Design the sequence.
């Protein structure tokens, strides 16, 4: 079970003073401290654990964020940065003695520059609405986490979010050109800008993915990319996970770089089929491979991919020939999480493995499923090895919750042993915090914590995340 | 010192009493020379893992780039960021290494489309200033487990740690390349043409302009890559998009296209020509204005790459710090080639704001408290 440090009684006693000071720098309506209202912030999309914060502030400018952080620093109050609260790892889970600083009101587009292909936004803006702003001119913002309708750019930067299209377009850090960062001491600095590469140490590179532990990013300059002329998928059904895995490897070896290669196993295929009736075949494993370009380019690439797949004797081949057919092929995949949710509660894991280890790891997962007596469905981005096993359980049974958490940890350890990692795109947060020593040695973690020591010497920013409590204890107490 | 492996290297660093001047292949010296004992990492060589189907390669930091290129070529793959070979520009011998490439975050013309060296890194192992071995990242495409020290180490020029092993993403090589050339454009028009090409959906992988090409006339260059049919189609499409800028010459001879882009990537136009060479990273539409400001003060030869976002500047020896002519400028300038004495006098890297400097110094103190790793190179 997840351990969180006991809140500081001394801070709880000072609540009214702290709230009063916050109201001096932020409009009264944006400082939330009534327990009935702070309850809305007791968790993010990782809902297993909850705790209401001391207060919530929703600033409307970088300067306000700076003033709020300065006060929190002076008062030695922990700060929990928050975007839209869609973290699946508990990245925005508060403690009772913390102040949540949310950027959701800061959602303006500040500058759009097609000649230089970037957009400058306030980071409370949602991921999808960045693309919405530029798609009329034929551009898009590439990182596309599946929560993109709701998730904020601030959270994307904090977690270095990915998505289905990263094999070709990269993750957030590869599409980020500049940030405006507010330090815990309330200083404002710009890192990067509308140009390429860092002029000194790449501090933006270390801030991206630091889960809100180094500062609060209030503005971002994002690279925008011309939209391809079109995209179309082909669907293959295979008799086993191994064969589907081998087919993925061969497609990549053939020199084709599909924009997405999605994988679903039988439990997931059946659930999706029951849910949306996408016309999926009843097979052990299914691949959806999508390529981009003009119609002739798509035909040529899909032709090559079908040739490669033919060597693996697929049981089904469905090439989309129209937008309508494409939508149907994607309908099942896109509803996968909803479909599984109809069957049972589930937790969604996020380990990454080398693509070459796919068959072995899938076998290991199904063995663990037997050992723990819990069902698993697999749906994931196969091209980049980012697995999303869904463990099915009954949230009303405390015993099953515990069994599910243990099994999840075993699956993630299996990913690490196979040369992979604990989290490919969701982040560590509190969810994977205690597993960090499986992947990193004490020296490795020490090196990371040394960075935080520089940006946030008193360990006030999101202090109970990423690093196991016994490892960060001395620093947090100091 | 030339440690044979990571353990020896770690011991050497832990026990040294002097500053260390770290060198890989020695092909890209930069900045004032470091007063210290030379530490060569070239023995930490060898490709330790290559999985073409996973697009992943892991190699010792001292591995020669030429070895990596050869192994990748056998599987029709490549380093997509196309690292520049500095030997031509700097008149050096030796073999560029993957460690040096990463330490200096070296990219080439394809950076504009495929990203920089740092964007292709999956993981690193390094030895910090106390001799501790640290790993970060891994060898998978997507990894957000803990802080991203990989990006921080890229471009840190050995001042935070000595790289010992690199895991890197590789990509399929392309079947075919095409060059589109437009002649005699004025600089402003040329940058506009490059921008128009980069705003198209045809995945332009090279966008350069030289105001004085091989025959002394301006040439604007655009590169397309892909499968043969794809390149044919895109060439036709892009030609139509760019026709308003002038007549488009299409070059399909693969050797000529490759030679042309190597000429851009390695800044061969400044080869064997004396003087100081600067690298400016700017907002591409600002490029022509910045160049005008420089040329109003001093004679300067120019090469634009990355759609104009990268400007190579050649000025006479003794010109001094050209940053004073560029301001105000969104971007940064690096002194890449100059005499020993000029490199002592002019800051090599762009001066940072005070908070940036304070945080950078703080990070250096954490990773190298004795200040023995290339001391003074970056500040």
Sequence:
């Amino acid at each position: 079970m997840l351990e969180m440090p006991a809140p500081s009684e001394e801070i709880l006693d000072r609540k009214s003073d702290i709230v009063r000071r916050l109201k001096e720098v932020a409009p009264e309506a944006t400082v939330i401290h009534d327990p009935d209202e702070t309850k809305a912030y007791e968790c993010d999309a990782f809902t297993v654990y909850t705790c209401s914060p001391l207060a919530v502030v929703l600033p409307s400018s970088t300067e306000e964020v700076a003033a709020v952080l300065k006060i929190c620093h002076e008062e030695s109050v922990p700060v929990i940065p928050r975007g839209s609260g869609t973290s699946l790892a508990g990245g925005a889970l508060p403690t009772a003695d913390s102040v949540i600083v949310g950027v959701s009101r800061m959602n303006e587009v500040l500058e759009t520059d097609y000649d230089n292909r970037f957009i400058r936004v306030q980071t409370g803006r949602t991921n999808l609405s960045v693309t919405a702003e530029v798609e009329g001119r034929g551009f898009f913002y590439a990182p596309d986490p599946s929560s993109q309708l709701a998730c904020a750019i601030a959270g994307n930067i904090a977690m270095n979010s990915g998505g289905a299209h990263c094999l070709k377009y990269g993750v957030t850090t590869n599409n980020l050109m500049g940030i405006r960062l507010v330090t815990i001491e309330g200083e404002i600095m710009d890192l990067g800008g509308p140009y390429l590469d860092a002029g000194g140490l790449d501090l933006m590179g270390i801030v991206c993915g630091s889960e809100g532990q180094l500062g609060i990013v209030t503005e971002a300059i994002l690279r925008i990319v011309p939209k391809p002329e079109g995209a179309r998928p082909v669907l293959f059904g295979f008799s086993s996970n191994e064969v589907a895995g081998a087919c993925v490897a061969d497609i990549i070896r053939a020199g084709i770089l599909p924009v997405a290669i999605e994988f679903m196993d039988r439990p997931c295929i059946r659930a999706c089929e029951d849910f949306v009736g996408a016309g999926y075949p009843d097979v052990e494993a299914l691949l959806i491979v999508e390529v981009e370009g003009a119609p002739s380019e798509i035909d040529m690439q899909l032709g090559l991919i079908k040739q490669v797949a033919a060597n693996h004797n697929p049981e089904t081949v469905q090439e989309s020939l129209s937008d309508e057919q494409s939508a149907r092929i994607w309908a099942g995949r896109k509803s996968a999480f909803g479909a599984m949710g109809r069957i049972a509660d589930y937790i969604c894991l996020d380990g990454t493995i080398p693509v070459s280890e796919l068959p072995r790891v899938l076998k290991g997962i199904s063995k663990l499923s037997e050992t723990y007596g819990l069902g698993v469905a697999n749906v994931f981005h196969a091209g980049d090895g980012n697995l999303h096993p869904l463990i099915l359980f009954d949230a009303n049974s405390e015993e099953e919750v515990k069994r599910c958490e243990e099994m999840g940890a075993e699956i993630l350890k299996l990913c690490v042993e196979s040369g992979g990692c604990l989290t490919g795109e969701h982040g560590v947060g509190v969810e994977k915090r205690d597993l960090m020593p499986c992947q990193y040695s004490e020296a490795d973690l020490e090196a990371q914590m040394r960075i935080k020591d520089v940006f946030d010497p008193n360990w006030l920013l999101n202090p109970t995340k990423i690093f196991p409590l016994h490892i960060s204890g001395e620093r947090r107490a100091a | 010192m030339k440690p044979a492996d990571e353990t020896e290297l770690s011991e050497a660093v832990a026990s040294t009493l002097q500053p260390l001047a770290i060198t890989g292949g020695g092909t890209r010296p930069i900045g004032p020379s470091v007063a210290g004992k030379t530490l060569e990492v070239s023995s930490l060589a060898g490709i330790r893992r290559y999985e073409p189907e996973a697009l992943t390669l892991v190699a010792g930091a001292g591995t020669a780039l030429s070895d990596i290129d050869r192994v990748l070529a056998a599987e029709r793959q490549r380093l997509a960021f196309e690292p520049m070979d500095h030997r031509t520009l700097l008149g050096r011998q030796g073999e560029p290494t993957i460690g040096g490439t990463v330490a200096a975050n070296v990219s080439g013309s394809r950076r504009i489309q495929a990203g920089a060296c740092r964007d292709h890194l999956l993981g690193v192992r390094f030895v910090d200033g106390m001799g501790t071995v640290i790993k970060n990242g891994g060898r998978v495409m997507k990894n957000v487990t803990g802080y991203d020290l990989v990006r921080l180490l890229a471009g840190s020029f050995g001042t935070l740690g000595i790289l010992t092993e690199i895991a890197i993403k590789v990509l399929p090589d392309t079947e075919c390349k095409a060059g589109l050339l437009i002649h005699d454009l004025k600089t402003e028009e040329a940058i506009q043409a490059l921008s128009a090409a980069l705003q198209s959906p045809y995945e332009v992988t090279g966008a350069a302009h030289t105001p004085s090409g091989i025959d002394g006339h301006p040439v604007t260059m655009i590169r397309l890559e892909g499968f043969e049919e794809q390149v044919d189609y895109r060439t036709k499409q892009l030609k139509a998009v760019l026709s308003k800028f002038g007549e488009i010459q299409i070059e399909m001879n693969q050797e000529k296209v490759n030679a042309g882009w190597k000429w851009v990537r390695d800044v061969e136009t400044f080869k064997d020509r004396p003087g100081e060479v600067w690298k400016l990273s700017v907002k591409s539409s600002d490029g022509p204005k910045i160049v005008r400001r420089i040329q109003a003060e001093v004679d300067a030869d120019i090469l634009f790459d990355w759609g104009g976002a990268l400007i190579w500047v050649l000025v006479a020896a003794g010109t001094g710090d050209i940053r004073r002519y560029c301001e105000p400028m969104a971007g940064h300038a690096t002194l890449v080639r100059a005499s020993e004495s000029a490199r002592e006098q002019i800051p090599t890297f762009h001066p940072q704001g005070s908070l940036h400097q304070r945080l950078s110094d703080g990070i250096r103190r954490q990773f190298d408290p004795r200040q023995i790793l290339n001391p003074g190179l970056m500040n």
Chain A touches chain B through 93 residues (CB under 8 Å). The first strand of chain A starts at residue 31 and ends at 32. Chain A has five domains: 9-104, 109-226, 231-337, 344-417, 440-478.
